[in-house]
Amino acid sequence: MGLSAVTVLGVDRPGVIAAVTGSLAECGANIQDSTMTLLGGHVAMMLLVSGDLDPAELRKRLGAPDLVVTASAIDARRHFCDDGGGPEGVGYVLTVHGPDRPGIISAISAVLAADGGNITGMSTRLTGRLYVLIADVDLPKDVDVAALMRRLAAVGASLDSQITFRPVEPDLL
Questions:
Q1: Where on the phi/psi map is residue 171: left (φ > 0), alpha (ψ -120 to 50), or beta?
Q2: CATH code for 3-74?
């Protein structure tokens, strides 16, 4: 069974997610992994779907005048029953609150990447003049978390933002 990456972008309206996922089900596709959100009044979906599917046929079936759809065959990079961080990593939640400005994500992700940190999910919102970022981060077990937190705090200070970084509490998930 193949795996396809599907992206959908369009003006948000009631029923758009139902239409897209219904079309996928009709052609025998099984959604393995997905994220869906609203971005400035647009619905944005990224889905990994399994099934013996032709990417061109998927685009045709999912296409609508108000949607931009891409579909590509891909190789799986992980088993979908994994618990996320796995035995080699530790999960954290990072939050940023501060004024909006260019370079926030770049500065923070560079600090995380320098220690082998991997952002596995991220959401940002601009509420008035307040910029909010929430990210799920996996770190290798051997990272000096205290030193990483000091570097993140320094970046936060340079951005006039407050950064928090805490371990994921599995009981809450």
A1: alpha
A2: 3.30.70.260
Residue-wise DSSP of the chain: --EEEEEEEEE--TTHHHHHHHHHHHTT-EEEEEEEEEETTEEEEEEEEESS--HHHHHHHH--TTEEEEEEEE---S-TT--SSTTTEEEEEEEEEEE--TTHHHHHHHHHHHTT-EEEEEEEEEETTEEEEEEEEEEETT--HHHHHHHHHHHHHHTT-EEEEEE--GGG-
3-state SS, 153-169, equals: HHHHHHCCCEEEEEECC
Task: Mark 132-156 as b/e (b = at least 16 C-beta within 10 Å).
Answer: ebebbbbbeeebeeeebbebbeebb
Task: Give the pLDDT confidence of 48-70 residue by residue, as tens digits.
Answer: 999 877 778 777 787 778 889 88
Q: Which CATH class is domain 89-172?
A: alpha beta
pTM above 0.85, yes or no: no
How far apart are alpha carbons 136 and 169 in whole angstroms?
A: 12
- Asked if the domains 3-74 and 89-172 are classified in one and the same CATH topology, the answer is yes
Q: Amino acid identity, residue 76?
A: A
Domain ranges of the chain: 3-74, 89-172
